[in-house]
Amino acid sequence: MKIEETIHSSHPNHKLKMEYTETPFRCDGCHEAGIGLKYRCNTCDFDLHKACALAPKSISHTFYKKCEFQFYYKPPGPHMRLCDACQKSVHGFVYHCMRCGFDLHPCCANLPLRLHDGDQHNFQLCEKLSSACHKCGHKGLGWSYRSECKNYNLHVSCVKELLVESWQTIYLNQNKSVNKGIREIETRLVAVPSLKGTLQNHHNPKGRVGKVGRCCQMASSALQIIISALLGDTTTIIASVIGVLLAK
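Predicted structure:
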């Protein structure tokens, strides 16, 4: 059941109404990017991811069976904290396990354990990689999505970097007082960097097609659905919007 409006304790003076947007936004809770369903106060220009607006006070996660994560409005303690899923800094809403010290952004905590791209490709969320990520070429830390055939790997952190490269200059760092009409037009013109060239070089530096082409096509599908999940909306509509951005 969809909750059309809610009151959040971080914004108690006005109700937040559920909206759908194909324009990227900056969540005022976790300070991460979002797209699709959100909860918004038009009076205050205040937006929350669905995962942030409806975040329960405590959660558990299959990767951390001994942990109990509590919701915090700000990262606890005096030191900078990193999300253990995406390895990015925590600047706002976070789930934290006081006993074990793990941290998760709300959207990362809600990442699906399995993703299906609408074709024949399934992707499993993994806590650790056993082979290199196709974006950075390393195993590294943080969660990743791995294809069911085990031939394709992509760090959650690497997907976020692709988004930041294209959005932070024009959208995320802009003051909210800037004319929104201009901002929306500019945002739509910015393409998320494609993995196609990266994968071609990774698999076949001589540029031959065949398996490489099929792998790149699979990479595009994977990237679309993973980005959709990271931004808080795994619907087919949002995946297609991301696909348009990737194709530019």
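Summary: The first strand starts at residue 5 and ends at 8.
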